[in-house]
Amino acid sequence: VGSLAQTAQLTVTKTVRNLSTGTGWATSTAASPLDVLMFMVTIQPSSGQSAQNVAVRDYLPANLVYNDQMIVSGTSNYSGYITTGLNFPTISAGQTVTITYQAKLAQASNFSYGTSTLTNNVSVTSSNSSNNPVSNASVVVTRSGVYGASIISTGLTNNIWMDSFILPLMLALMGLWMYKSGLFF
Q: In sequence order, what are the beta bridge partners of 73?
């Protein structure tokens, strides 16, 4: 007589905050290039059953660079990294595991002018879970231009040879010709 396998239901939530501007935790935040962000992933078995062999992986989008500072609370029994796969042998029923880490936005030249939305996804799997939940947090990056900065010509041609020699010579020759031809009184 075999025993029935117990299945666990997992829940995962992901939030973000902008450390550069001091925003609070939310599912979306506004940011500028080079801002430092902190992400928080919370995992919990919700069915009253422990989750076995739990793997958590975060998929960072382009222009969002892992900045380490990873802290795992709720358990000390884990291995790996959030970006390549964080493994927990067991997350007990009623236990909550929280993972925080930092990421930094790329420099301004990597973003187009205006706003760009980066979506950061996390997935969770378990050997005895009947679901594989995913969650995400978004970062709305704004790149703005510097108003008033442009290239303005400061001379006739901005060519020192043309402006300092040829143009005055032409004006002098034309004046001499006009004087000789009687156009000047």
A: 98
8 Å CB contact between 122 and 58: yes
Instruction: Identify which of 111, 51, 58, 61 has the alpha carbon closest to the alpha carbon of residue 81.
Output: 58
Q: Which tokens is 34 given?
A: 């080079």
pLDDT tens profile 11-41: 999 999 999 998 899 999 999 999 999 999 9
CB 151 within 8 A of CB 81: no
Q: Estimate to the nearest angstrom the gap between the alpha carbon of 114 and the chain centroid.
A: 14
Alpha helix ranges (H) inside the chain: 160-161, 167-180
Q: Which residue has the higher pLDDT, 47 or 152?
A: 47
Predicted TM-score of the model (pTM): 0.74
